[in-house]
Amino acid sequence: MGTRFIEVDESRKGEPGVRKGGRTLTVGDQSITQETWVKVEAYDDLDSTVTEDVHLHTFAVPGMEVRAGAAKDDEDASSEFETRLVPSVQYYQIELGPDSLNKLHEALEPFIAAAKECEPPKGRKTRAK
Fold it and tell me: 4-16 pLDDT, tens per residue?
């Protein structure tokens, strides 16, 4: 996701997003760790110049998945498996600033206008084995 670390001077340690970090240098079998200060900055995944008011958003995209079932003819082990299409959902996460979030809403607008609002699907119960 859109996160970067920017090394800053210790004088900025009280600023939002600034944390103490360390840089380790290894040569042969010896290591030395130097204290450093970094600013952790989230940025828009579509426009890396946007760093203000960036938030993580999760969304789902419906699709179809091919699944293989039992053989068509149980007596013939060389038979091909039946395949079928079943509805599926893929979830995504993206960090967006206000302008990019508006672009996402605009792209989805015709689909949302044609749809009806509903409750999220309930999880499927699994059988005990």
Answer: 889 999 999 899 8
Nearest Cα residue to 61 out of 122, 115, 108, 110: 108
pTM of the model: 0.62
**Edge-to-edge order in the sheet of strand 18-27:** 3-8, 30-42, 18-27
Residue 36 to residue 19: CA distance in whole angstroms: 9
Q: Does residue 54 contact residue 17 with C-beta atoms inside 8 Å? A: no
Give the Cα separation of 12 and 38 in Å (integer): 9
Among 99, 124, 93, residue whose Cα is nearest residue 2:
93
The helix/strand/coil state of 10 is helix
Taking only Cα atoms into account, the Rg of the chain, rounded to an integer number of angstroms, comes to 25
